[in-house]
Amino acid sequence: MNTIKRLIVTTFLMLGMLGSTAYADNMKKLGTMNVHYMAISATFLTPEIAKAYNIERSRYNGLVNISVLDNTKTGNPAKTVTITGNAKNLVGQSKPLEFVEVKEGSAIYYLAQVSYHNEETIVFNLTISDGKESHPLEFSQKFYVD
């Protein structure tokens, strides 16, 4: 299993063991795109994975992971998209997000980092475009410093 797939599976398993149902439904159908999304603390990453993808592993750093699948094709293959947007805390401080595309085999992931403080809720406002259609995606995540 490749490293990003291992990260996704491990993260969902860990969250499932913690009893969190908030992560189970992190998929939205946006036109021809099935968009899977999550935001986690970078401390969930192993040092090796963080280093491989140039991700700062810190108690104050989160990782946004987006994958987009084409729901019009058999098997729902990964789809290349452009993702733009920002993250805002609840007092309105905006943080720009820079997504990096990661391809591993047939999988495509878009990763961005975001800084946060303890018990800070971050609202992610994104636009996902495949060149034919664009859709907004908004979700929030409360982060904790361990």
UniProtKB/TrEMBL annotation:
The keyword Signal applies. Gene3D superfamilies: Domain of unknown function DUF4426. Keywords: Signal. Residues 1-24 form the signal peptide. It holds the Pfam family DUF4426. InterPro entries: DUF4426. It comes from the Bacteria. Coiled coil: none annotated. Residues 28-146 form the DUF4426 domain. This is DUF4426 domain-containing protein. It comes from Thalassotalea insulae.
